[in-house]
Structures are given as structure tokens and as C-alpha cells.
């Protein structure tokens, strides 16, 4: 099963483009920072990664300001057919705003 969940900050956002058949596509940059326990030791994680959203999710994410806190779900896939570089494909997202407001996109 290929299922991926991540909490991250939106740090890059491209303009929405459209596929030849009219599907909206949005490319994003994400930043993640957390602490996990591995082998009974605390490990600090900090990384950036590329992500992509298609369809209605792309249109809704396109309006978010940089710095938005996101809870994301989707899957990982190669950037291109024979590539070893992975990209996070976002299928569901929640954005968190100051004051505790949550917006599901």
C-alpha cells in the first residue's frame, strides 16, 4: 500500500497550470520539522520536499498563503516514469490558521 501522511509548512507555490485535457495542476514546496523516536532515541527531523496536487485540490491549495500549516494525505510516486526522485501527490489537505481555524481542502 502506498499511503503517505505529513504535517508541513507551505514554502513554495507555483502558478496553476492545466494538462492538455484541462486538469488543474499545482506544484508545491513543503517544509517539515519534527521529533521522532527511533530505536529508543529521539531524532530531530527537518527536510523539504516537492509535492503536486491535481484537480479540485490543486485549485483550493493555490489560494493558500506561504507559511500555511498543512496536514496532508496522498501517495508517493516517481517524478517521471524512470526517475528515482519521488514526489508527494496530495489527495487531501487541511490548512490550519491562527486562532485554531481549520479549512479542509
UniProtKB/TrEMBL annotation:
Keywords: DNA replication, DNA-binding, Primosome
Gene Ontology molecular function, alphabetical: single-stranded DNA binding
Gene Ontology BP terms: DNA replication, synthesis of primer
Family, as annotated: Belongs to the PriB family.
Function comment: Involved in the restart of stalled replication forks, which reloads the replicative helicase on sites other than the origin of replication; the PriA-PriB pathway is the major replication restart pathway. During primosome assembly it facilitates complex formation between PriA and DnaT on DNA; stabilizes PriA on DNA. Stimulates the DNA unwinding activity of PriA helicase.
Gene expressing this chain: priB
UniProt xrefs under PROSITE patterns: SSB
Subunit description: Homodimer. Interacts with PriA and DnaT. Component of the replication restart primosome. Primosome assembly occurs via a 'hand-off' mechanism. PriA binds to replication forks, subsequently PriB then DnaT bind; DnaT then displaces ssDNA to generate the helicase loading substrate.
Protein name: Replication restart protein PriB
Record GO cellular component, one term: primosome complex
NCBIfam families the UniProt entry points to: PriB_gamma
Amino acid at each position: 500500500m502506498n499511503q503517505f501522511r505529513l504535517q508541513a509548512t507551505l514554502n513554495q507555490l507555483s502558478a496553476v497550470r492545466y494538462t492538455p485535457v484541462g486538469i488543474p495542476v499545482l506544484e508545491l514546496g513543503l517544509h517539515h520539522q519534527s521529533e521522532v523516536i527511533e530505536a529508543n532515541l529521539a531524532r530531530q527531523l527537518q527536510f523539504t520536499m516537492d509535492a503536486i496536487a491535481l484537480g479540485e485540490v490543486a485549485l483550493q491549495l493555490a489560494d493558500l498563503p506561504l507559511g500555511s500549516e498543512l496536514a496532508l494525505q496522498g501517495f508517493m510516486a516517481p517524478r517521471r516514469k524512470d526517475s528515482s526522485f519521488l514526489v508527494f501527490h496530495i489527495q487531501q489537505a487541511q490548512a490550519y490558521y491562527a486562532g485554531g481555524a481549520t479549512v479542509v481542502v
